[in-house]
Amino acid sequence: MHRLPRGTTTEGWATSPLATVLQCARHLPFADALAVADSALRHDAMTYDDLQAAASGRDRAVLLHATKVAANPFESALRAIAIEAGVPVVPQFEIHARGLVLHPDLVDPLAGVVLEAESWEFHGREKHAFETDCERYNALAATGWRVLRFTWPQVMHHPDLVRAVLRDTYAGLAA
Length: 175
Prior knowledge:
single chain, alpha+beta, Endonuclease, Chain A, 2 domains, four-stranded mixed beta sheet, two-stranded antiparallel sheet, 6 strands, globular, DUF559 domain-containing protein, Restrct_endonuc-II-like
């Protein structure tokens, strides 16, 4: 990041939300920058059109993929890994399966692949959440979807493992 001259603030902030997103897009790793951009859109700090109008150079790649429908930074990081691996995923894509309307974290609708960012905090602490996840998984699997489930440590600390699973899955689809 770059220092601003003293006294340079916008509404009490050292930079505007848009300037912050642009600086992050230029200087942070792709996954981190995408999480920042998604968060700014999700919290209505700016619009997608604002991002596109301001984008140039390296930040354009990040801002091209930014979306307000990404549920959280964990999902954004998983999406960044998929994008870098050449997997065309759509966040929160609607799927109808066994009478349920589902919005998995990430979906490649053409290949029939679902990627789920599974955290213990939201998916494992309560019996009801666990039961719901099992029902969702079974509905997807029973209707032909390949469901890949990734944990926080895998996405954040072992992205090569995630890439390998994606590579092997797509190699299996091509065979």
